[in-house]
Amino acid sequence: MKQQPANWPAFLLDHFPYEKNQTNNICLITGDSGVGKTTWCQRWLNLARAAGWQVAGLLSPPVLEQGQKVGIELVDLASGERRPLAQRRPSEAEANDLITKQWWFDTAVLDWGNHVLQQIGTVDLLIIDELGPLEFERGQGLQAAFDLLTAGNYRLAGVVVRPSLISHAQQRWPEAQAILPQRN
C-alpha cells in the first residue's frame, strides 16, 4: 500500500468509478495512530461539500489536552452534533463497561451513533470514522455501519480502519481500495 498524493481526496471525488448499490465504492483509510486519518476525512468531507455532494456519516476527532489525546468525540456529519465518545481507560473499570486497551466508551453515545447511521438514506459520500476492534472483533460499537455499507446507498464511502484490522475489512469488502494518508 502506497501513500497517496496530498490531492488524493479531490482525485477520488472526481475519478472514483460509481455504480449505485455496489459495495466496491469503498475506500479504506488506514494508517498508524496520529498519521492524520480523521484530518484526511475532514478534508475529504470539505471538498465533497464544496463540490455540492451530500455527505453523511460519523467523524471521530480526538480531544486534546496539552497536545495529548485524552478522548474521542463522535460527530454526526449531517447535523454537526458532537458527543463525547471515549476517554482514556480508567485504571479501575467495571466488568460491564465497554473498554479496549486504551479507551472507555460511552455506550449511550455508541447507541446514538448507531441511530444516526440507521437514519442515513442515499448520499454521495458516506464517511465512517472508525470501525475498530469493538466492531470487527467483538460485535459491538457501531454495528449499524456494516448494514449501511452493505446497502451501498452512496456514491462513495470512506471507512477508517486501523492497519491491524485491514484484513478483516478487506474480507468483508474485497473490492475496497486501501488508502494510506500522508502525515499532516
How would you portray this structure in words?
The protein is an alpha/beta fold and 184 residues long. Helices cover 29% and strands 27% of the residues. Strands 1, 2, 3, 4, 5, 6, 7, 8, 9 and 10 form a ten-stranded mixed beta sheet that branches. A hairpin with a 5-residue loop joins strand 4 (68-76) and strand 5. The radius of gyration is 16 Å and the shape is globular. The two termini are 18 Å apart.
Strand content: 25-35%
Shape: globular
Ranges where pLDDT stays below 50 over 5 or more residues in a row are 1-6, 19-23
User: How is the CATH topology named?
Assistant: Rossmann fold
Level-2 CATH architecture: 3-Layer(aba) Sandwich
The largest sheet, given as strand count, sense and whether it forms a barrel, is: 10 strands, mixed
Structural category is alpha/beta
Approximately how much helix is present in the residues? 25-40%
Query: What is the H level of CATH, i.e. the homologous superfamily?
Result: P-loop containing nucleotide triphosphate hydrolases
Distance between the termini: 18 Å
Radius of gyration over all CA atoms, rounded: 16 Å
How are helices and strands ordered from N to C? HEHEEEEEEHEHHEHE
Q: Mean pLDDT across all residues, rounded?
A: 85
Using the coordinates above, name the CATH class. Alpha Beta
Count of discrete structural domains: 1
The strand count comes to 10
List the total number of helices.
6
